[in-house]
Amino acid sequence: MRRIFAMIFLMAATPAFADATATCKFDKGVVTVAFTNAGPKAMQCEVNCNMAIKSGIGTVVCVKVVPPGSKDLVMCTESADGAPWTGIKAQEVNCRDPEGTPISPEEQKAREKADDEDSDALIKKMQQQSIEMLKEMQKMKQQQ
Length: 144
Prior knowledge:
Number of strands: 6
Mean pLDDT: 80
Distance between the termini: 20 Å
CATH class of the largest domain: Mainly Beta
Number of domains: 2
Largest sheet: 3 strands, antiparallel
Radius of gyration: 18 Å
């Protein structure tokens, strides 16, 4: 189980740019999104922290311009309004140069669709791994 979460974290923590990283931190029911931009340019970044709740997933979204050279800049802090969060499932980071060429609505929709498809595939893979893990645990329990 820990391997699955470690794999998810590594996949989700892959930065959008080589010099940019974001971290969703969860402590005592509060999510804090911190961002580091070691690059020479400011970046407009969106960080989605997918939080586990008893009935599924809740998402914390932070959008902010991150100045160059910033380290562990707090983008936002948020507490659960409804169902309490139990942990971080995954995070997604999207950054762009705020002075760069804007993305057309069609391109944005295509990117979102591709992201949704990737997320769906990852969820299905995780579900299958969970099922396999449960079966293994049941086998181990029966052997005892």
